[in-house]
Structures are given as C-alpha cells and as structure tokens.
What does this fold into?
Amino acid sequence: DGAGAAVFSAHQADKEGVLSAKLGGDGNLTDLLELANSGIRPNPNVPGRYITMQGNEVFKQAVRNMSECAVCALDRAGLTPHDVSLLIAHQANTRIIEAVAKRLDLPSEKVFINIADYGNTSAATIPIALCEALEQGRVKKDDVLVLVAFGAGLTWGALTLRWA
It folds into this structure.
C-alpha cells in the first residue's frame, strides 16, 4: 500500500501551476468494476463480497476515457499532446499506460511508469510516481505535466500543470 500528498498554494502567474482539469464518470458502467455486496454491514452469505472486474472492457474504457480526458484538459489549457513534457498516469496496468501514450502520440521517454516497483497503490499511484519522477530529475521548471487517472465507478480525471 502507499500514500501521497501534495501541497498547493496560490500563485500569481497564470501560466504556472495547475492550468486545467477535467473529470468524468459514468455510473452506468459500474458493473464492469464493482464490489456488489459492500457497505457498512456486508452479508458474508450473499454473493458479491469480492471485487469483480470485466478486465477487457475495463481496459477499453480506461484507455478511451483517460486519452479523451487528457486531450480535453490539454485543450482547456490551450495545449496539445505535442506540448507534454511528461505523462504521469494511474499506475494500474502498464498496457493501459502505454495505450494511452500511443493515443496521445507520446514517445516512451515522455511517459513515467513505475508500476513494476510498487504495484497498483490505488489513489496513491500518481503522487508516488510524481515524487519519483522529481527525484529522478524527470520534471524540470516549466515542464508541462499531464496527470491522468481512472477508477471504479467508473470515473476518470486529468490535470494539466506547468511545473514552477
């Protein structure tokens, strides 16, 4: 398991820091990745007490929605995938990250992947990856970063920022 945190503060420059964000979700797709028998007092005798996932369909939804969300966030910032210095995606699956990068036409050197080192740490994957990218010198002042995630529900989001 893992955890991560970020500290944000007001910034005077309008071309640094968080440039744009985009969130999305589709509750109609909840059966693709769910814990059906959940809640405060789940009944162990009722089916659905384990997480179920329709992996192939989740893969397709993740790639499509993460890619579209990233492009939308970039567009809101007046940028294109060509402007991206580094893509930091939710580290759930290397194939998903590589497929998103391919859709954005990003070369591998502009994509950060560390899932082999930590596994899927759920909501902590992006903060951990960002920290590691900083430690490795892969993020520099004025770099354009796209942080993009996908999760149960189904939900997705992207953040475009210029590193200050």
Remarks:
- The CA atoms of residues 91 and 119 lie 7 Å apart.
- Helices lie at 55-76, 94-103, 115-118, 125-135.
- The first strand starts at residue 17 and ends at 25.
